[in-house]
Design a protein that fits this description.
The complex is a heterodimer of chains A (about 270) and B (about 325). Chain A is of the alpha/beta class and about 270 residues long. Chain A has helices at about 45-55, 75-80, 95-100, 115-130, 145-155, 175-190, 200-210, 225-230, 230-240, and strands at about 5-15, 20-30, 35-40, 60-65, 70, 80-85, 160-165, 195-200, 210-215, 220-225, 240-245, 255-260. Chain A is built from 9 helices and 12 strands. In chain A, strand 9 (about 210-215) and strand 10 (about 220-225) form a beta hairpin. The relative contact order of chain A is 0.16. Chain B has a single domain, classed as ABC transporter involved in vitamin B12 uptake, BtuC, CATH 1.10.3470.10. Chain B has helices spanning about 1-25, 35-70, 85-95, 105-130, 135-160, 165-175, 180-200, 205-210, 215-220, 225-245, 250-265, 265-290, 300-320, and strands at about 130, 135. In chain B, helix 2 runs parallel beside helix 7 (about 180-200), helix 2 (about 35-70) packs antiparallel against helix 10 (about 225-245) and helix 3 (about 85-95) crosses helix 10. Classes of the chains: A alpha/beta (about 270), B mainly alpha (about 325). At the A-B interface, helix 2 and strand 6 of A face helix 8 and helix 9 of B.
Chain lengths: ~270, ~325
Amino acid sequence: MESPPAIETRKVSFGYENRVALTNIVFSARAGEFVALIGPNGSGKTTLLKVLLGLLQPSCGTILLFNEPLSSYAPKERAKTIAYVSQQPALSFPLTVSELVGLGRYPHSSRFRPTRDDRSVVEFALQQANAQHLAARSFTTLSGGEQQKVLIARALAQSARVLLLDEPTLHLDLYYQLQILAALKKLSIEKQITVITVLHDVNLISLFADKALLLSGGTVRAFGPVTEVINEANVRDLLKVDMTTIEDSKTGARCFVPRGPFSIWRNPK
Amino acid sequence: MNRKRQICSLIGFLLLVTFFLALNIGPVRISLLELSPTDKVILFNLRLPRILSAFFVGGGLALAGAIFQGLFRNPIADSYLLGVSSGASLGAAGAIVFRLASPMANFAAVSFFAFVGSLAALALVFYFGRLNGAFSIFRLLLAGLGVGLFLSSLVAILMLMAGEELKALIFFFLGGFSSSSWDTTWISLACIPAAVLAACYFAPELNVLLLGEETAESSGIRTGRIQLLFAVLAALLTSISVSVAGLIGFVGLIVPHIIRLIFGADHRTLFPLAFFAGGMFLVVCDAVARIIIAPAELPVGIVTSLVGVPIFLYLIRKESGDYGL
């Protein structure tokens, strides 16, 4: 009944010049799955994303993208299959939003003239990211949340089946965080896009992700369905934070409330 | 594309007007309708090569500036500020002083050594201007300034060392277009259009690179190759400009900036428009330099600086925010 994995790592390790960053990473994600990467700062989350994208070559192990080794993909073919939203790049030139999203068509389009197809994909990507009203604006004049939606739209315009994101909710207010994660969730359900994203908030992970990968010191501490791996014991081990699990009386969703290690809270008791 | 056609016809029209006016301007009055034999010599052997040189040098500098700005994702970059022009001067001066080439006898060889010098300067700026894979605006400018000052001092030392070659050096560093002839023009005619075409062909890749190297690489671009290609193109444009006309500042800074304000930041339109606008701008500046204190001539670099520096300072004040300054 289960489809073959969209992306799969087999004992992947990676080291920078003077230190090991990832050791024996084993995990896989299927079409339409929403996988959250969580771990303390410096645990190798961004490095793992870059290895999955082929930006960094693993020192050993293999990565399979739709059952083909990632290294066998030509750059443009790879870009048609897997797209990336990095932590916000500083764009210093006033490209318009639709020009910027159009850059996502690079691996598909001919050199000079955007086709009608390109234009409709750009429009659709903006719509998926709830950013169609921004199309004519200059990117540099947008707020942080608007910029993030546009950058996600750019990745969507690549028409890839796997989407990797590095902290897409960074610096955003709660409304934008929820809006962006809801848009990604919808893509994973309706378009069967595999979403792999770094997220720090265990509550948002519980709400949106199907699976979670807990990363610490470059090794996988736990990987599996969110309901199994995001729990008080794992969070304490991974993030050194004591949590209490409660249930939302309205939706039945699990929520986590921190209670330690710092003991200065506003409310008495 | 109706707008495209309009812009093309506008450029064609402006080109014709600038060339016509520039051909008419000079110490000797010439009627283009009734040419005497001397008029023909003045027109075809003095004024035409001079105007063509000014056009290709201006276009080349503007395009080099646009390339550097895109390459470093930084609106305040051009050959002059980055020290690349100084590298070209050093290369040319070294070649002249050590008698590897002479500007009178073998102009192409001087240009070649200027090219080597500008590549070396660019490599230094790349090395010192980079921190954790990014070019910060301050680091880049300081690196360019440092490299430029250092190389200029080396040029000064070379001038002191020069014996018989001093005359050739001075001739070379006088700059401007007063010594332009077909000998110095043909090399820009040959190389600069080729560089313009190459830059326009690879403009889509540089567009994606504006989003950062990781995003570009993940979009299927071999970023290292594209960056190297554009670095070599910009160094080539700079070195030809410097060997034809000496140090001319601010064309590469201001022209792409203004084109970007009007037509947007897409390199596919920015590159050709910056080339044509920069060319016409320098033809006009050179015409001004010829007539403003006639019969003497002002060095054209002074004219571009007088026009350019105020615009540059204005942009620093005005464009904060939008350009991330």
